[in-house]
Every structure is written in C-alpha cells, then in structure tokens.
Amino acid sequence: MNQRHVDELFNFQAKTDQLDGLPKGIDELTLIKIQEIYHHEPQAAYTAELLGQAIGISKTTARRYLEYCVASGFLEACIQHGRVGRPERLYQKR
C-alpha cells in the first residue's frame, strides 16, 4: 500500500479536484450562488450585508467572497458615502 491508495481510501483526491484553483475559505457552490445573482441582475450593486441576507450567509463571509470576486475581475467595488457613519462598499458587475 502506498500514499495514493491511502488517499483514495479517504477520498482526498476527489475533494481536492473539486476545489482546484479556489483559495482556502472560498466554496465553489457559494461562489456560484453569488455569481448567479449578478448574472440575473447585471446592473445591481450590493453591500456585503445585503448580499449576505439574500443568500443566507454572514456579512463577513459575504465580504470575503465579494473581495475574491473583485480580485478575480468579476466584480468592481466602489465607495458610497452617506451623511453619517462609515462609507459603504458597493459591489457591482464589471
């Protein structure tokens, strides 16, 4: 028995094949949900909080996915300044 056989027994290869190319903390299915929202509404701009509510994830998790989408060139971020409080980051399709 060698390492490959051990990996096959524990299904490690199948797990890594599914996630090739995605950084740690980015799930393919969640990423697809986010991309589908922007494909259905290409002009929409969401904050991390609104997007998180739309798909049922936390604001922090949504921000991580949105920033990944910005880094990969799928989305762009802009700042919206309000009268009070911190400015909000809005994410829209590039």
TrEMBL record:
<dbReference type="GO" id="GO:0000156">
    <property type="term" value="F:phosphorelay response regulator activity"/>
</dbReference>
<feature type="domain" description="Transcriptional regulatory protein DpiA-like helix-turn-helix">
    <location>
        <begin position="29"/>
        <end position="92"/>
    </location>
</feature>
<dbReference type="Pfam" id="PF20714">
    <property type="entry name" value="HTH_64"/>
</dbReference>
<dbReference type="InterPro" id="IPR051271">
    <property type="entry name" value="2C-system_Tx_regulators"/>
</dbReference>
<protein>
    <submittedName>
        <fullName>Transcriptional regulatory protein CitB</fullName>
    </submittedName>
</protein>
<dbReference type="InterPro" id="IPR048714">
    <property type="entry name" value="DpiA-like_HTH"/>
</dbReference>
